[in-house]
Design brief:
7 helices, five-stranded parallel beta sheet, seven-stranded antiparallel beta sheet, alpha+beta
Length: 321
């Protein structure tokens, strides 16, 4: 798992809409967690896992101030460059005595106390494609049994698309590996052939003794009769996340958070375009697979024609654990 570059942090930090949603979520969680009569005497322990250069820490402290609640914050971050920024922020913002910076991978850190609230921004364009389930499963050992995770759940979505330009860009590499790789892209000049459908959902915290982040889903997409026939070049992927109760953020087109730019869609190509006659049904299969050192997706079509299973065994595209 690699560290982010400074430019990436800067881009994320400019997404004020995203952090406004997080602030709302922490605000609501604090009001639920601490009744008004205990507000002046109760200190809520909040941990930001993957704190980066501090935007979630700042949003959480603003939520505490606006709700009249007290916080003790642990900012856990493994990137040494971001840790330097966090230490300087403590002095600059006057966070001494409130925020403790922890220079560690959340998977190895031994916390001195349990948290009431665990806050993270580990989501990728497909929700779980940047190992949020694995990271948060590891981090939930910091959380009290009745503790709150923000986000509390997230779901990936896909829809079949006609995208000849994208397809030709992938084809130009003249190898199978590029057809078995998912691409984060800003979608232009595509045709959406059927409404997006949910694929995989993850909920946090997950204290199930049989916790397993492998997934399989079969999806049936019906091409509307008035669409006519179409070519499917692949699938556009999105996510929607519930931060806390009714506060959400996401990029699934029908519920997308307005003016948020931290994520583009993800594109899963097909090695050969699938011809879809008007009014026909597309059978799609998606797997989320886990090995000893990596996580990967596999995908295939079984109707109206059969495609190969793409990315078998994570041979072309994976995320390292």
């Amino acid at each position: 798992m690699d560290n982010l570059e400074a430019q990436t942090y800067e881009t994320f930090e400019k997404d004020t809409v995203k952090y406004a949603q997080y602030k709302k979520a922490v605000h609501a969680a604090l009001l639920d967690r601490v009744p008004e009569e205990k507000a002046s005497t109760t200190i809520t322990v909040l941990m930001v896992v993957g704190a980066g250069r501090g935007p979630l820490v700042r949003a959480s402290l603003q939520a505490a101030e606006e709700s009249g609640r007290k916080l003790r914050v642990y900012a856990v971050e493994k990137n040494p460059n971001a840790v330097v920024t966090l230490h300087s922020l403590i002095k600059l913002e006057g966070w001494e005595g409130i925020v403790t910076v922890v220079s560690s991978d959340m998977r190895q850190w031994v916390a001195p106390e349990k948290a009431d609230i665990l806050v993270s921004e580990l989501l990728g364009s497909f929700g779980d494609n940047e190992l949020s389930p694995e990271c948060l499963d590891g981090a939930q050992r910091f959380l009290k049994e009745d503790g709150i995770s923000i986000p509390s759940s997230y779901t990936s979505f896909i829809e079949p698309i006609t995208a000849s330009r994208l397809y030709n860009d992938v084809k130009s590499h003249k190898d199978i590996a590029h057809f078995e790789t998912a691409y984060v892209v800003k979608l232009h000049s595509i045709a959406r052939l059927a409404p997006p459908q949910p694929v995989f959902t993850f909920t946090h915290p997950n204290f199930s003794p049989k916790r397993d982040n492998r997934r399989y889903k079969k999806l049936l997409f019906e091409l509307p009769a008035d669409t006519g026939s179409a070519l499917v070049h692949g699938f556009a992927g999105y996510f929607d996340a519930t931060l806390y109760k009714d506060i959400h953020l996401g990029i699934e087109p029908s519920t997308a958070t307005p003016n948020m730019f931290s994520w583009f869609a993800i594109f899963f190509p097909l090695r050969k375009p699938i011809y879809l006659p008007a009014g026909s049904v597309l059978d799609v299969h998606f797997w989320r697979c886990i090995g000893a050192t990596k996580v990967w997706y596999e995908w295939s079509v079984t109707s109206p024609s059969v495609s190969p299973i793409h990315n078998c065994g994570g041979r072309s595209y994976w995320v390292g654990l």
